[in-house]
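Researcher: We're teaching a course module on how sequence relates to structure. For the next exercise, students receive a sequence and then see the predicted structure as tokens, so they can try to spot secondary structure elements on their own. Here is the exercise chain.
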Amino acid sequence: TSWTRVQTGSFSQGNIRLKPGDPSTVYAVTSNAFYRSTDTGTTFTQVSTGLPATSGRFVMDVTPANSDYIYILSSTTGNVFQGIYRSTNGGTNWTKTSGTTDIFESPQAYYDLALAASSTNADEIYTGCMNVWKSTNGGTNLIKINSWSNPTGPSYTHADIHYLGFHGTKLFAGTDGGIYVSSNNGTNFTDLTA
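Model: And here is the predicted structure for the students to work with:
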């Protein structure tokens, strides 16, 4: 019926998450800033400790496996991989967990970029740009689990991944070629598009 602006900024390329188990805590990211509210979104405070000073795009996710964990996947202003950042204290401090492996495989993070944290393992995350990459140690090491150029592979998803997310224990991927789902942590994906 009525709306009040509580935070200015461009959140169109970012996202909003509620802290699992505590809906009074709200997290939000713009393309280059992280904000936290502890009063159900009435006010927001920007937190930057440990995050990059400049970024081209942020995407974020949380996990009910540990409600204090938050992950941010960041690109540079040139749309290439900048890093994976993790907070283990509800967004107060951030640490870069990733190495230098180019998990984007292209400079198109302005167009397709996705991040999902497992609903059952706080250290398991999935990233997407061209392909899906998986980490079981909080982003320190990542393994490419599929290839967009191998459509007969069991873990195949179409390229240009815009969405990754867990619904229950199923991992969904939204891509330029359709919707895919995995019930076994990315070992196999099923094409739901048809």
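Model: If you want an answer key for the exercise: The mean pLDDT is 96. The longest strand covers residues 22-29.
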